[in-house]
Design brief:
Number of helices: 18
Distance between the termini: 46 Å
Radius of gyration: 51 Å
Helix content: 40-55%
Number of strands: 21
Structural class: alpha+beta
Bound molecules: ligand C2E, magnesium ion
Strand content: 15-25%
Shape: rod-shaped
Strand order of the largest sheet: 13-14-16-17-18-19-20-21
Length: 524
């Protein structure tokens, strides 16, 4: 994934992380508020149903008492008994007695005229008949509920069934299972009442929240206005906002932290190593006397997925700091041996030098890795040189030990960038070295009269004195090459000859610039 797409993804994720918690919490709090409203409605419906049961039980008890006591005939005692029972049962308004198919007397006295008995609208399993709309003889405009058994009936005001204190915005009602309303708060949606009568349910539609409870042939229901219920829960939802903001902030922070981690140089390098994004280029090293190519320095390059090249000066220090240098060195060794194994076989005097860092020299890990790669590809150790900068010798004892073993195995060892680090002359003498590479800054000074120009002859004499070969780095001008050749420097590399080349180009360069037989002997 390119840096740009990581940044774009991180921005998108951050926006999502900012919005999502607010959205989710608002949704959850809304659902919770609606669910709690629905359970309140279910509770109200349950209470209404209990009220129906209590009323029916009262009516049944009164009717059973009259039946058991065997009253008939509308005597004064009969009427007085009915009145006493009416006054005793708060739900009951009136008691009636039928003779044949006419009402003969009520708890208020003997009935004059012909009031016919009506057939029941529904019958409960125990034989109790219910008339849903009875208009009493005494007040025909009133609508009563009549419960009849045998020859007596009792009248109940339907409002009593829903006579519970409820919040405004709630409709409470009772209906038959067939959807016929017995009583309902004014304004209840008849279609919804019919729907709720079919089964016990709890739910919501676009305009309502509702719950119904069923017992026997009766349904009690409670309905609330959805908009009103939602408005009343708005405060609760607003209370969730700080929590939502906190969750958003935590998530955004997490996204930023993760993307920074992902974009950190170490992480990028780690991924590049795993994806094998490193290639090695080879800068030809020429023999100054004859101008022939004797080998090359392996210089690692990082080619990012978008095609951009990253120079080693940018990522080698990061690799060293983050402990990834060992893995990078392993990859460079493997790459170099793979790239050049074929060419080495036909060119026994060709060499390649591999750069080592302080970490490599301290651990000595490079040696077994190199030996294994060379053995696998059948390459002679003498064809691989090792370059160690002066900084690599800070831990002189272990670095010296590992390089001594490398030399014993057949490798040649050079000190790189000589003159730019901290090496003391005594240290130089004690190190197991074969060659010294003069840093480009000294080469640049040649012929310019710069102060560093004075040092070069001494460095060359020193190397000669210690019996070391000399490689001049960064040779760009023919004058520099002439000076170095005349001063007895054996090898040079630099843009005067060639920049670093891809493996195939270097092999072609080498074949076109093979050293003269004399130079071959001196290198070998
Ligand atoms: P170095 O080992 O001193 O490598 C020589 C550097 O000088 C290379 O730069 C090379 O391309 C550059 N150079 C060569 N000739 C000329 C020239 O005529 N003019 C100019 N201006 N520059 C020239 P590069 O490839 O950028 O490497 C920089 C440093 O990175 C190297 O310095 C070396 O210390 C390190 N490096 C490169 N590859 C590796 C590697 O595989 N492992 C380790 N540990 N370090 C590496
Ligand atoms: Mg080098
Ligand atoms: Mg160098």
């Amino acid at each position: 994934m390119s840096r740009r797409s990581i940044v774009v993804t991180a921005i998108l994720l951050a926006v999502l992380a900012a919005v999502l918690p607010l959205f989710v919490l608002s949704h959850i709090s809304r659902q919770r508020a609606l669910a709690s409203e629905q359970s309140r409605l279910a509770h109200e419906a349950e209470r209404a149903l209990q009220r129906v049961q209590v009323t029916v039980a009262q009516a049944r008890r009164v009717l059973e008492t009259l039946e058991r006591e065997g009253w008939s005939g509308c005597s004064d005692a009969h009427v007085a008994r009915m009145r006493a029972l009416t006054l005793d049962a708060p739900a009951i308004e009136e008691i009636g007695f039928f003779e044949g198919d006419r009402l003969a007397c009520t708890s208020w006295g003997v009935v004059d005229g012909h009031v016919p008995a009506q057939p029941s609208d529904l019958e409960l399993p125990d034989g109790l008949g219910i008339d849903l709309e009875l208009h009493p003889a005494a007040s025909p405009s009133a609508t009563m509920l009549a419960l009849r058994r045998d020859r007596h009936n009792v009248l109940v005001k339907p409002e009593r069934l829903v006579d519970v204190i409820i919040d405004p915005g709630i409709w409470l009602g009772v209906a038959t299972r067939t959807g016929r309303p017995i009583v309902a708060s004014p304004g209840a949606d008849p279609a919804l009442v019919a729907r709720l009568s079919r089964a016990a349910t709890t739910g919501a539609d676009e305009r309502h929240l509702f719950a119904s409870r069923v017992e026997g042939g009766v349904v009690a229901f409670a309905i609330a206005d959805r908009a009103q219920a939602e408005a009343s829960t708005a405060a609760e939802r607003r209370a969730m906002v700080p929590l939502g903001l906190l969750a958003s902030a935590v998530l955004v922070g997490l996204v930023v932290w993760l993307s920074r981690q992902r974009l950190s140089p170490q992480r990028e390098l780690d991924i590049a190593l795993r994806r094998g994004e490193f290639v090695v280029h080879y800068q030809p090293v020429v023999e100054l006397a004859g101008g022939g190519c004797v080998g090359a320095e392996a210089l690692v390059r990082w080619q990012r997925p978008d095609g951009a090249w990253v120079p080693p000066n940018l990522f080698i220090p990061v690799a060293e700091r983050s402990g990834l240098i060992a893995a990078l060195t392993d990859q460079v060794i493997e790459r170099v041996v793979q790239d050049l194994a074929g060419a080495f076989a036909g060119e026994p005097s060709m060499h390649v030098s591999i750069n080592l860092c302080a970490g490599d020299l301290h651990s000595g890990r490079f040696l077994p890795v190199l030996e294994a790669a060379l053995a696998r590809h059948g390459v002679a150790p003498s064809q691989v040189w090792l370059e160690a900068t002066e900084r690599g010798f800070i831990d002189t004892a272990s670095a010296g030990g590992h390089l001594a073993r490398a030399r014993a195995a057949g490798h040649r060892v050079a000190i790189d960038d000589f003159g730019t680090g901290y090496s003391s002359l005594s240290m130089l003498e004690s190190l197991p070295l074969d060659a010294l590479k003069i840093d480009k800054s000294f080469i640049d000074a040649i012929g310019r009269g710069a102060a560093t120009g004075v040092v070069i002859p001494h460095v060359i004499n020193l190397a000669h004195g210690l019996g070391l070969d000399i490689v001049a780095e960064g040779v760009e001008a023919p004058g520099q090459a002439a000076y170095l050749a005349q001063a007895g420097v054996q090898y040079a590399q630099g843009w005067l000859y060639s920049p670093a080349l891809a493996a195939d180009d270097f092999i072609a360069y080498y074949r076109a610039h093979r050293p003269s037989p004399r130079a071959v002997q001196s290198v070998a």
